[in-house]
């Protein structure tokens, strides 16, 4: 089914109400009553050969109908800016500037994300730019085709160099599988303002957020998240919604990777009008959080039915899954997962042809229930559909048992930060410390000089007390 869909690329998942209205006009000309959202913040609609006559009338949009996926949409966590935890320097305007400067059509999947948010996956791209604590610098994780494993780019990348580095990687990555050689090839071609990084990328664990409904944003504004469980967004509603955004001066509409969309910056004075529009159209803005944390293949009715079956069981058993997220995937078409728990459908055996065989599933969860670890563990294999709700409930309970426990890495880091007791010599007059590891620059004493090796005429650099005034102490 996926191969019968056309994709409209929405760079970074960000478009204006006017652009969405143009897409809706296109959909209406194609005879569509609904459109769908894709996992990479794109817009999807059914493919027909006759579509080309109409889609060619909209040259401002990049539309891909190739089943080979010749080009890829760029995804970003702009959608989370100002409403979810964020790196202090990373503003919405930074995303928009970077996205504007990317002028080529990428053949590789590019992610531009903030590690402090959980709504947009960090590592399901092939070029994953992840914000560092250093202002305007990004880590770059590479998960390139035909490379055995993902690697980290050896330097931090400057914000304004992201477009040309992404384009240069596309040019050279097939020539080598060595990161240092790739780095050298890029540096020979372009000038960059790179920066060495002092520590490895650290990604804090954040529970998966609730992203639906009308929510406060600052003192005088709101943001709205909208979700349809069948991922079929009504064109007539979207048209009226775009008109509302234009009238209320909302500048951007953001698509999430969870097949929903978010609108930020709705002024308080327009809130009542928006609530009336949603009510008139019968739009539900308070789905159960059990529904919002699922990632499904596009246009896959079997996966949607399975999700409904499991969510119904969760609801009947009054189970909380807050902070977790789930995905349903076909094992044959396995791509990069980005949910904390995955239901994997096994390939049906081909030996038995006379009988219809019920499908079986595997259940996986990622290490520490954090999808950013990219390390998945099998919890159960070859189980029947009826067993899935119980297994997932067990996993949910395990998640809450482990929640708040320190990981091995955190224990190691804490161990590294334990204060160490150290012997030094301290002046008894003014309490100045002489530490042999540092020496005394003022007295031209080199680092590493032991106190006993100091000249007999050595005096305190602060109060001129003699060497005899120093006492051995522990700090």
Report on this model:
- The protein is α+β, with helices and mostly antiparallel strands and 475 residues long.
- Among the domains are: 291-411, Sulfite Reductase Hemoprotein, domain 1; 419-475, Rubrerythrin, domain 2 (Single Sheet).
- It is 24% helix and 21% strand.
- It has 11 helices and 24 strands.
- It has helices at residues 17-29, 52-55, 92-101, 162-172, 179-189, 235-247, 271-280, 289-292, 301-316, 388-402, 408-416; strands at 5-8, 14-15, 34-37, 43-46, 63-64, 75-76, 110-113, 127-131, 137-142, 151-152, 157-158, 213-217, 221-227, 233-234, 253-255, 260-267, 294-295, 326-330, 341-345, 361-366, 376-383, 423-427, 433-434, 470-474.
- The strands form 5 sheets. Strands 6, 7, 8, 9, 10 and 11 form a 6-stranded mixed β-sheet that branches.
- The termini are far apart.
- The relative contact order is 0.09.
């Amino acid at each position: 089914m996926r191969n019968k869909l056309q994709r409209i690329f929405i760079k970074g998942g960000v478009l204006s109400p006017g652009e969405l209205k143009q897409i809706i006009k296109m959909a209406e000309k194609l005879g569509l009553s609904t459109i769908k959202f894709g996992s990479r913040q794109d817009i999807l609609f059914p493919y027909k050969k006759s579509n080309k006559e109409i889609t060619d009338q909209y040259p401002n949009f990049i539309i891909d109908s190739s089943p080979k996926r010749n080009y890829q949409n760029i995804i970003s966590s702009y959608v989370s800016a100002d409403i979810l935890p964020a790196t202090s320097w990373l503003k919405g305007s930074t995303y928009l500037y970077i996205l504007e400067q990317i002028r080529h059509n990428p053949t590789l999947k590019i992610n531009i994300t903030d590690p402090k948010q959980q709504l947009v996956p960090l590592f399901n791209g092939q070029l994953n730019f992840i914000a560092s604590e250093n202002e305007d610098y990004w880590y770059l994780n590479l998960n390139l085709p035909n490379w055995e494993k993902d690697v980290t780019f050896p330097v931090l990348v400057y914000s304004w160099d992201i477009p040309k580095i992404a384009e240069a990687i596309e040019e050279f990555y097939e020539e080598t599988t060595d990161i240092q050689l790739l780095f050298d090839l890029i540096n020979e071609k372009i000038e960059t303002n790179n920066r060495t990084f002092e520590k490895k990328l650290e990604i804090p664990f954040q529970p998966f957020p609730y992203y639906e409904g009308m929510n406060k944003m600052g003192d005088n504004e709101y943001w709205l998240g909208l979700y349809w469980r069948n991922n079929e967004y009504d064109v007539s509603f979207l048209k009226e919604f775009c008109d509302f955004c234009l009238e209320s001066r909302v500048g951007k509409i953001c698509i999430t990777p969870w097949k929903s969309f978010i609108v930020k910056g709705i002024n308080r004075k327009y809130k009542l009008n928006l609530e009336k529009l949603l009510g008139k159209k019968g739009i539900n803005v308070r789905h159960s959080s059990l529904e919002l944390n699922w990632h499904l293949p596009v246009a896959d009715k079997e996966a949607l039915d399975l999700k409904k079956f499991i969510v119904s069981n969760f609801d009947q058993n009054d189970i909380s899954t807050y902070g977790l997220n789930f995905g349903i995937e076909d094992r044959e078409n396995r791509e990069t997962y980005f949910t904390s728990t995955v239901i994997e459908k096994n390939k049906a055996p081909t030996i038995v042809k006379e009988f219809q065989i019920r499908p079986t599933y595997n259940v996986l969860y990622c290490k520490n229930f954090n999808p950013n670890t990219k390390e998945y563990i099998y919890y159960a294999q070859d189980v029947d559909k009826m067993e899935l709700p119980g297994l997932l409930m067990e996993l949910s309970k395990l998640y809450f048992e482990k929640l708040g426990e320190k990981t091995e890495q955190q224990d190691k880091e804490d161990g590294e930060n334990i204060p160490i007791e150290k012997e030094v010599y301290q002046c008894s007059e003014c309490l100045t410390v002489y530490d042999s590891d540092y020496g005394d620059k003022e007295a031209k004493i080199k680092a590493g000089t032991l106190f006993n090796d100091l000249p007999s005429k050595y005096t305190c650099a602060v109060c001129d007390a003699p060497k005899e005034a120093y006492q051995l102490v522990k700090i």
